[in-house]
Structures are given as C-alpha cells and as structure tokens.
Amino acid sequence: MKYGAALLAVAGLASARELPWALMQLGKREVPQEHSHESILRAADAALKLNNPLEIVDAVFALLGNAAAAQGAPNVQNLDCLQQIVADQAFTNAKAAGDLDGMINAILFRALERNTLKVGLASELCNETATNPEIANIQQHQDPASPNAAEINKQVELEVAKSLASIGADPLLALKTATFAPGDVNDPTAKGNSCNDETDPVGCIFTLNLAVPAATEEEILAAVSGVDSGAGNGDDTNVDDGTDGADECEAIVDDGSGNDTDAGSDAGADNDNADSGSGNNDSATGTVNIQAFTGTLGGPPPPVESTPGAARPFSVNGNTFLNAAAAIQRSCAIQKNACANAANSGQLQGGTQQCDQQEAECRAANNLRKRRVPVTERRQFGGQLDFGSCGSPAIRFAEGLDGRKEASFQNVNLQDFNHGSALNIRIIADFTCQRLQSSCKAPQETVQACQAGAQAAQGQSGQAAANAFNSALGVSA
C-alpha cells in the first residue's frame, strides 16, 4: 500500500485532530524514501498480512518516524521497534508457509534505513529482542551522513548476509539493503541523495542505480564462511533457498565461465558432452554444469556445478548450495557484476542497464528451461523415482482448494504432503522437495529431480506449471 493511501486508510483510526498533526510532522522530515526499496517493502507487507495480530495497517509505517508510524500501528507501544516487529512477524509467517522469498524479504526489510527528520540524523535503535534469531541480530541502516554510518551500515549488511546464509539464501542479497550516498547535513531542503517512487515496483534505488553498499562482496563472503546454511529454517518448513522475491532484482556478484549440459543450445538432448562451452561435464567425477544461459556481456556466467551425492550438491566458484535455484541466482548475479564493472570502467559501452537486462535474461533462461536432472544422478523418468516412505508428491491446480474461489496449487497426497493451497506453485513445490528430503528420506536423486521440477515450474503458470513439476518426477495429478 502506498504511504499516501495507507495514511488515508487509518483516518478512521485517528481523530481529525491527530491525522493533520501527523501530516505536518511528515513535512518536517528528510525528503521521504520509504518507497525506495519498493520490492522489499511490498514483499514484507504481503508476508505480514498472512497473520497480523497487532493489526499493523501497512509495513510502510515501520519506515517512518514515530509520529507518522503511530498512525499505522495503534497497537504497538514501542514504536522504535516497529520495523523489527514487522520483520519478525513477516518472517514467522513466511517460515510457517514454507515461503523462502518471504523469509528473505523479511530479513532485508529489517535492515532498510528508516526516515528521520533531517539529513545526518540517525534513527533510534530497538531495545527489544526479536523472536526469530534471523531477525534479532539485525538493526536498520542509518543515514549515511550520520556519525560512523559507514562502519555501522557495513556491520548491518554483514549481519543480514549471515541471516540469509543461515536459511540457505544467497548472502550477497544483503547488498540490496544498501542505502544512498551521504547527503549534505547543511542542506536546508533536507533533500539528501534519496528517491521515493511509489509506482516503481522494483524500487527507485535500484532502477536509478543509487544504492551505495557499505560492505564489499568479498567481506560478505568472508563473514558467512562459517555459517551453517539452512540451519535457520526449522523443521518441516525448511526451504533451503530460492531465486529472489526481493527478486527479484537482487543485486549480487562474482565471475566465471561455463556452458550447460542438456540445455536448449545442445544439439543432442541427452548427450552429456554435447556442449561447446567451457563448462562441460566432468566424466571422472560426475559433476555437470546446469547453467543454461549463454550471454557473454562482461564475460559468460560461471558454471553451476551439480555433483551427485554431495551433501551440498551445487557449487559456483567454490561456494556450495543445497538448492539449484540459489546457485543459479549466484551465477547470474556474478555475471551481472562483471558486466557492471566493465561498463563503469568504460570497457563496455551502453551503461549498466544492459547488465540488469542480461541478469534478467539469465534468470529467465534457467526458469523457462525444463531442466533435466543429469543422467548420472537420476533414474530414467520413464521409471518410478524412489519417494522414500512417502507416496506420490504430485501437485494439482484446481479451483475450490481450501475453500478458495480462485484456482490454486496443492499436493494431491495430503497425508504425506500436508500443506495448505497456495497461489504460487513455488511455495508448494519447495515444500514438497523439502519434505521428500527430510520426512520421506527420499534419495538425493529424487530430491534433485524435485528441485529441477520446481525450477521448471517457475517458467510456467497454472496447469502448465503443475504439469512441469509433475513431469520432472514422473507423476501425475
């Protein structure tokens, strides 16, 4: 909900006297920026609304000063902690739903800079402890012109990275929480270097390339080197990772080269050495490259290596992942960073916008492709995969599920895969893959086939998405 609309929505909650006063306070603050990270804001608000016991009108109020925030959170006593409260509840809700994107965006939201009354003024810190440890270790970015902001904001980004890594997400997504360049503390207009566009669904800080990270990619990767990925997800709602909800304009990074096996550019569908790229299969180890994208602006994307039987079977430039989606996301982002570096240095003409476009194409190439699990790590789909102690993991798409009027996705076999329906197949598919691995104790080849099916489903919609997932597992609804 846009801030203006949100404020009107609470008119019934505040007296005629209180509401204009809040508006006057708004006029005294630094030029607003609460919609600068719009994609994160919207995703956090959506997760919050799944279960909102404090009846917070909109997540956007958590990014405002206390006077304005009070209008949207009348049941919150400690407004210095409103941002943490929103993030904590959003994370709890997303975790319960098995929604990794929601969990990621809740973490990112907690770290966004909160508006203050002038350039250079830091916001108050929360003095309470969040329920979720993935939220509790994070505080918000501070105005970049405030005292010691560079070091404070670097630590914020490093803590965000640790929380992301703990749930199996790409830690470099922490860079999405970066704020603006420092403004002039003596500027009477309080303009700073911010932006605030309610109509930009991605976020004007990304669209206008205004984000200035305080931490480097190398510092983030070093900070998370000892983090146990996936440890923060809990039990049956554990989702190892995913491609972006902050998505999904996630700005992340690295380098490398490599092409895919069994990809759309192959001449032979199942010839594991048919690729012409540098990332061909390693026949000695069974490792294969599942990166499908072939664009080369700034250099090709690094290989996404899949190693059958490994505890963390996917690897990009030495960094390992539990889930193919996060590994592919990293590979695409690494290429984007190399492209942006080349554009910023003048080696590549056309600016950095083309790098953003290429990253989107890289994601699309992997999402739209019905990726086959390599023959070295799968049974032929014509045969039955081993689902461990569970029955069929098939997903159906139908109207009336859980009383919904609109069509939604849900497992057919609710005895083994007991999850409510969802409008996004990713929620059900990721839950299914996690359940196969944890409760069903299915072999790794089945889990990887499920992950490939979940990835394939993301490039489709409706019944086609369900068909793509089911086909990868050799089942039907």
From TrEMBL:
Keywords: Signal. Residues 237-253 have a biased composition (Acidic residues). Residues 1-16 form the signal peptide. Residues 226-286 are annotated as: Disordered. Residues 254-284 have a biased composition (Low complexity). It comes from the Eukaryota. This is Uncharacterized protein. It comes from Chaetomium thermophilum (strain DSM 1495 / CBS 144.50 / IMI 039719) (Thermochaetoides thermophila).
